[in-house]
Amino acid sequence: MQQIHIKGGKELEGTINISGAKNSCVALLPAAILSSDKVTIDNIPEISDVYYLEKIINELGGVITKEEDSFKIDCQNIENVAISEEYSSKLRASYYFMGALLGRFHHVEMYFPGGCNIGLRPINLHLEGFKKLGAKVINKGNKYVIDAERLVGTFINLDFASVGATINILLAAVLAEGETIINNAACEPEIVNVASFLTSMGAKIYGAGTSRIKIKGVTKLHGGFTEVIPDRIEAGTYLIMGALIGKKITINNVIPEHLESLTSKLLESGTKLEIYEDKIVVYKNEVKNPISIRSQVFPGFPTDIGQPMGLYMTQLNGFSNYEETIYENRMQYTKYLNLMGAKMMVNGQKLSIIGPTPLKGAYVTATDLRAGATMVLAGLIADGDTYIDEINHILRGYSGIIEKLSNVGANIEIVEI
Ligand code: EPZ
Prior knowledge:
Mean pLDDT: 95
Shape: globular
Strand content: 25-35%
Low-confidence stretches: none
Bound molecules: ligand EPZ
Structural class: alpha+beta
Number of helices: 14
CATH architecture of the largest domain: Alpha-beta prism
Helix content: 25-40%
Largest sheet: 4 strands, mixed
Radius of gyration: 21 Å
C-alpha cells in the first residue's frame, strides 16, 4: 500500500504551475462523444480520473491520440455499448456519459456513478432533466437504462443550482429538437468551459455562466477545440499552503476572477497577496485575523476549498467559523487535524475553530479528495513526520503533487508500506 510521507515545518519558496481543471476535463471528455468529427482538448491534467474516462471512451470505440497534454479524440464510429461498472464506479463524473450518450444515441445503459463519500450525492435533478426532454429512465438493479424516441427542447427549472445536472442537461439538449431553457443553472466556470467547447463544435448555447442558459438544438456537431481552464480548486489549495508556510510562493497559470471569494478571505485574515493577470504571489500570513466563512455555489466560497480553509483557520488568532451548505458529510477530516493538535468543534454543518494551535505530525487518512489535500498541507506545517494513507483520493485531483511541492522545498515522498 502507498502512503505520502511528509517531514513538516520547513518554509516553502518558489513557483507552482497550476494544471487543467479536474472538474472541467471530467465533463469535456464525455462531451467529445457528441461530435461526429474529431475534436481536440488541450491542457488535460495528469490525474487518475482522466485515465478512467479515457478507458470509457475506448470501451465505446472512441480513439484518443495524445500529444503531451493535448488529446485528439475521434468518436465518429463509437458504438453505444453499456459502460462497464469497473470504470464507471471509479468516479462520479462518469455520469456525464449519460447526457452525452442520450444526446447522441437517445439510449444509455449505465451503472450508478462512484465518487467521494462526502454526502448522498443523488442525481435526481439530472434524471428529471432528461425526463423533461422526453426520455424514460428505468432503474434496473444498480443500472440506469434511459431511452428517448425523440429529445424535444423545453423549460427546465433546477431545484438546486447543481453543477452536474446543469452540465448533463446541456449535453443532452444540444442535439435536441427546439429550444431548451435551464433556469437556476449553476454558474461555475467549468460550465462555461464545457459550453465553449460545445459551441466550437457548432452547438447554439447562450448564457453559460449565468443562472439562465438557453440552448437551441442543432442536428449535428462537427469537430471542435477547447483548452481546459486552470484548476481553481488546485490553485486555491496551494494559495492556502502559501499563506500557511510560504516565504514567497508564486501560483502560476490561474484566473484570479475564479478565486475572488477565497482571495478576499485570505486578505481579510491578513495574508499578503500580489494578484496579477494570470498568477498570484502569496506570503505567509503573519497577521492571522480570525474569519467566518459559509460555503455557497459560485461565485460564493467553494465547498471544495472548505477543508483546506478549515486547516488554515486553525492557525488564525482566536475564534473562526466555517459553515458547509453544499454537502452533508465534509467534516471527517477534522478528527485527524484534532489528532495533530488542532481545536475544531463540529456541530452538524457548522465548525468552530480556536487558534492558533501548533500541529504535530501523525498517521492520518485521506477520507476524500479535498480532505486528502488538507492532510498534505497539515503535514507541511506540522512539526515532525506525517504519514497519509488512502492517497488514491489525492492522486485523483492533484496532478503532480509530489513534484510540485518538492519543487518549492517540501520534504515529501510516496512510500510503499
Ligand atoms: C461538482 O459536483 C464537483 N465535481 C464537486 O467537486 C463540487 O463540490 C460540486 O460540483 C459543487 O461545486 C465535479 O465537477 C466532478 P452538484 P456535483 O451537483 O456536480 C446535491 C471535488 O472535490 N444534488 O452541484 O456532484 C448534491 O447531493 C468535487 O472536486 C442533488 O441533491 O455537485 C450536493 O449536496 C467534490 N441532486 C449538491 O447538490 C442532484 O441531482 C451539490 O451537487 C445533484 C446534486
